[in-house]
Design a protein that fits this description.
Length: 444
Amino acid sequence: MDAPQIKVGIMAEKEIFFTLDGNYHLESSTNLITGRCKARKAGPGIYIESGDDCFFCPNSVVLIPSDPDTGKFILHNVTIGINFHWERKEDQTFKGSLHFITDGDKVHAINALSIEDYLMSVISSEMSATSSMELLKAHAVISRSWLLAQIQKNTNLQTESQKYQTTFRTENELIKWYDREDHTHFDVCADDHCQRYQGITRSTTELVEKAVKETQGEVLAIDGVICDARFSKCCGGVTEVFENVWEPVNHSYLQKIVDNNLQPEGYSLDLENEDAAEQWITGNPDAFCNSSDKKVLKQILNDYDQETNDFFRWKVVYSQEELSKLVKTRTGLDFGTITDLIPVERGGSARLISLKIVGTLKTMTIGKELEIRKTLSKSHLYSSAFIVEKQEIAGSINFILHGAGWGHGVGLCQIGAAVMGDKGFSYQEILLHYFRGAGLERKY
């Protein structure tokens, strides 16, 4: 069986500028196109402008390289890190074919390619291409597993009569989670909402190629069903349970796992309890991801990720005025002056599942973890595993958030896995540490 072909959504703009490096042709034509081009919406269709030539295509366009091995294209001004602290634009280079479709007033650029070619980029985009071989192999397996599981999930959702919901709102409560179900025109997007995919912009090394090829077709599975393998930057010492972050579905392989081969001494791991959560978050427990080894961190973190170095434990301070303005801006609701942030429910890693925001004009409970992180930061708070300290100063309040970890904390902890690889653990041992009860199967 050959590796499956997938479609990756790269960007959506009213006009998209791109450069074809090599000869390409429209799927329905033998006319060759190369060089600097532009795609723009025109009524119900798309215009492709290339030099003095202009091609009109209704609804969609597919550009196919004449030589798949050497043909590549550049998309200009692609936004990466959308809504994160390091958001920026860059030119990105891709292999495979280039698809354009219309949606609303925008044109979407989509890259169609083999899942194995996709993984070459994801491994180099999610981490440094100089990472250890065992970490690269582990990440190749979970990235492949996650993608194939999402494609199957999307197929299942399309056959269900009941509409899939991710938002539940009342006057005093908002519970929302963010997954990839809002992608209907392609399998996955190219940003952190799914998995970072930046084409061949990030230099892929022989090690990355070797890791992908030696694990080709290999996935995590239980009884033949591919695992929805999740990962985040730093779990903070304990991984989170899937349903505390996304839909209320229990996956036996995405449970609470201590990121250590020994139980940390002096701590209660009943982290749903406020006292235990405070002790854990303000402490410094031993964990694979509790590392300041620059050599290891450089393996897992690209340059822009290294702009932040508070991975395991962190602190954010807001004045009462700053927090009140921030919450109003991020939610679109006027809470008045924020007087309190009250934990309502925590998950197994001490991450908040729901949080009550108390203001002079409005009180509301919000969740799940990413909604909390979006509300309490201009981009994304590092994680929802935090406790709130209030300091009264001259009649006002400073809110100090003491936190743990970076990301949702479900599944593989990237920094922890990097440390395990550095300590000599095999990729199979790394995977089975984070995904208990799963096994490795080769699907193609």
